[in-house]
Amino acid sequence: DAKTTQPPSMDCAEGRAAxxxxxxSTISGNEYVYWYRQIHSQGPQYIIHGLKNNETNExxxxxxxxxxKSSTLILxxxxxxxxxxxxxxxxxxxxxQNFVFGPGTxxxxxx
Amino acid sequence: GAVVSQxxxxxxxxxxxxxxxxxxxxxxxxxTMFWYRQFPKQxxxxxxxxNEGSKATYEQGVEKxxxxxxxxxxxxxxxxxxxxxxxxxxxxxxxxxxxPGIYFGPGTxxxxx
Lengths: 111, 113
Fold this sequence. Notes:
The complex is a heterodimer of chains A (about 110) and B (about 110).
Chain A: E1 9-13, E2 18-23, E3 31-38, E4 45-50, E5 55-56, E6 61-64, E7 70-75, E8 84-92, E9 105-110
Parallel strand pairs in A: 1-9
Antiparallel strand pairs in A: 2-7, 3-4, 3-8, 5-6, 6-7, 8-9
Chain B: E1 4-7, E2 10-13, E3 19-25, E4 32-38, E5 45-51, E6 57-58, E7 67-73, E8 76-81, E9 90-98, E10 101-104, E11 108-112
Parallel strand pairs in B: 2-11
Antiparallel strand pairs in B: 1-3, 3-8, 4-5, 4-9, 5-6, 7-8, 9-10, 9-11
């Protein structure tokens, strides 16, 4: 799996958009960009994933650059409950392949 | 959506005893299950990959005789920590993979005293 680079920590004011960047310059053509988050002492929670088009669901939006070397996860209106570690993972869409977790970004949403 | 459960959610055991952790895919069949371990303030580290009906594949540095994995059915995998010691205290997380996707369990907090 391609490696990803994320800032170790970020702060965001409650109610504002949180934009979490991820660099994946060595991503392969068949690898997707996945985002998970982990709230303290819980299992990872799926947020969103995409291949090359921008994606949006009820939780977040995923913006992938045209060259696919980086992406941004956007939480449009961050709440205190969004405080968590956010992991960006690139991975081929293969049920037999595990996720390789980096250190992620610790997002703190401040009141 | 698909759900993966783990049991127990937390367990405290004495040094030298064995502990079994169950991972179940509740509404889908998981051809592959993964076991991760997470120490405080660290990321998840893959311990082993198990496929239904075959032996698990362990990551480098993970003792297969200490961490016994059984994947006897398409909905159940178990991790047994044998002769547990305080350094085995950790957060153990499983994930189950198969159509429609890959899903993580809520984790099991193991404390060895």
